[in-house]
TrEMBL record:
UniProt record similarity statement: Belongs to the glycosyl hydrolase 18 family. Chitinase class II subfamily.
Record-linked CDD domains: GH18_chitolectin_chitotriosidase
UniProt feature, compositional bias: Acidic residues: 393-408
UniProt feature coiled coil, ranges: none
Domain Chitin-binding type-2, chain residue ranges per copy: 443-500
EC annotation from Swiss-Prot or TrEMBL: 3.2.1.14
Protein name per UniProt: chitinase
SMART domains referenced in this protein's UniProt entry, alphabetically: ChtBD2 (SM00494), Glyco_18 (SM00636)
GH18 domain ranges (all copies): 24-389
Highest taxon, organism lineage: Eukaryota
Enzyme class per UniProt: hydrolase
Compositional bias segments (type: Polar residues): 411-441
Keywords: Carbohydrate metabolism, Chitin degradation, Chitin-binding, Disulfide bond, Glycosidase, Hydrolase, Polysaccharide degradation, Signal
Organism lineage: Eukaryota, Metazoa, Ecdysozoa, Arthropoda, Hexapoda
Length: 500
């Protein structure tokens, strides 16, 4: 009888584990600098709807070469009370978890490589992070090192990063704190930077940055975050630049699906068309699209900027049924982005793979004022698709309608494309001679994986992607008036960049 009871208990526990494993996390990053934006783009902590996210992450703080936390903007973080106000959002939603993120693209990789390599500096970093989290009452800490063993880092970063998060885990477990990380999406970058099984073991959540898969650096139009490959993606490398390949890559390398949060970009990548008569996916471009009034960055627009432009009229919006995302264009401007329909499809995709949840970058580029219809249409679409009860969830506006068949779309990457495509050019086939800039070099030679600056145009740089036994240079571009700094492996002010 006793053995039968044990068997029943074991089955019951297993059943509970299976039932309780759900896609139920909505991780929302907040770029704190958005408070400095003008007009309708100004976003403060008071604008955050705490009912729409399960986890809120404050971005960013940095570190020093001695391993201590650098607040980056101490006035905003402390004097203006942002850290305290952000953590206090939990008073509006008792189930909400708040975290603070360290790193980001502008922080580079070199400092993190140095700190991770030293037991003493790691201990300082972990203690300082713990002090910060406890001082302001956060529930955890998010590491956004972009990226281990890249951008001036060392090959030992892969092992040292594991040691770092293992030691973080040991300390944070003593205090019941969460430990998460933002990570690169594509397989070639993952292989350079991460011991995936170890990250899956020690982290509570792995936020996969499945966006920025195409942009103005390609020299042709492409989707920011295509769910599936396009029929114009004819090379092996091009076929990997999509959300589906990235997610499966993480799982195949040993990640627990329940630890993965699927990244959703709340913005679009923009292009200036070479000819306004060719608006297809893969159409030639002359550079980045125009900057928006709030984000002020050529080559990208926040979702709020996109929908406000569409309200002005004259824009044509197409649905890319192969890649399950929309794009919109007017005159010589072309934008690949996500709307409520494509977001819902991606959420259903995450559910189909039993991922832990989804992550958005970032909340301040949502239509948080509801100027295009309802407030927070994309986050509402996420919550609706996840089946999260929320009295504030409204139906998307007509222009952003979520189709009833989005669940089927999430499991079907073989539909015929409804839009025209240019089969003679692909967003990922470009080499250094096809980078969208007349000033770019045509003689780039990659000798190892990583980043290299264009020798004739300091605004342009390349990611050397390993494809089989050769390297493919993928052209990228700094924001206007910035140069690529080979020392820090970041875009920097020209006067701080040597050799230009």
């Amino acid at each position: 009888m006793g053995s039968k009871i044990l068997v029943i208990l074991a089955i019951s526990c297993l059943s509970f584990e299976i039932v309780s494993a759900a896609t139920d996390k909505v991780v929302c990053y907040h770029g704190s600098w958005s408070t400095y934006r003008s007009g309708n783009g100004k976003f403060t902590i008071d604008d955050i709807d705490t009912s729409l996210c399960t986890h809120l992450i404050y971005a960013f703080v940095g570190i020093t070469t001695s391993g201590t936390i650098d607040l980056l903007d101490s006035y905003l973080a402390v004097s203006n009370g942002n850290l305290a106000s952000f953590s206090a959002l939990k008073s509006k939603n008792s189930a909400l978890k708040t975290l603070v993120a360290v790193g980001g693209w502008n922080e580079g990789s070199v400092k993190y490589s140095t700190v991770a390599a030293s037991a003493t500096l790691r201990a300082t970093f972990i203690q300082d992070a713990l002090d910060l989290v406890q001082t302001y009452g956060f529930d955890g800490f998010d590491i956004d090192w972009e990226y281990p063993a890249q951008r001036g880092g060392a090959s030992a970063d892969v092992e040292n990063y594991v040691t770092l998060i293992k030691e973080f885990r040991e300390v944070f477990d003593e205090h019941g704190l969460l430990l998460t990380a933002a990570v690169s999406a594509t397989g070639s970058s993952v292989d350079l930077s991460y011991d995936v099984p170890a990250l899956s073991q020690y982290l509570d959540l792995i936020n996969v940055m499945t966006y920025d898969l195409h942009g103005s650096w390609d020299g042709v139009t492409g989707q920011n975050a295509p769910l599936y490959a396009s029929s114009i993606d004819t090379t092996d490398s091009a076929k990997l630049l999509n959300v589906n390949a990235s997610v499966y890559g993480w799982i195949e390398r040993g990640a627990d699906p329940q630890k993965l949060a699927l990244g959703l970009g709340i913005y679009g990548r923009t292009f200036t068309l070479t000819s306004s008569s060719n608006t297809a996916l893969g159409a030639p471009t002359s550079g980045a699209g125009n900057s928006g009034p709030y984000t002020l960055e050529a080559g990208m627009l926040g979702y709020n900027e996109i929908c406000e432009l569409q309200l002005e009229g004259g824009w044509t919006t197409e649905w890319d049924d192969e890649q399950k995302v929309p794009y919109t264009y007017k005159d010589d401007q072309w934008v690949g982005y996500d709307n409520a329909r494509s977001i819902a499809i991606k959420v259903n995709y995450a559910k189909s793979l039993n991922l832990g949840g989804v992550m958005i970058w970032s909340i301040e580029t949502e239509d948080f004022l509801g100027l295009c219809g309802t407030k927070y249409p994309l986050l509402n679409a996420i919550n609706s698709a996840l089946g999260i009860a929320n009295e504030n969830i409204e139906e998307p506006s007509v222009d952003d309608e979520v189709d009833a068949d989005t669940a089927d779309d999430a499991n079907n990457g073989t539909s015929v494309n409804e839009t025209a495509t240019d089969t003679n050019s692909t967003a990922s086939d470009n080499t250094a001679s096809d980078n969208g800039s007349s000033d770019g070099s045509s003689t780039i030679t990659c000798t190892s994986a990583g980043y290299v600056r264009d020798p004739s145009n300091c605004n342009i740089y390349y990611y050397c992607l390993i494809v089989g036994t050769t390297y493919l240079p993928i052209a990228q571009q700094c924001s206007a008036n910035l140069y690529f700094d080979e020392t820090s492996q970041t875009c920097n002010w020209p006067e701080l960049v040597s050799g230009c």
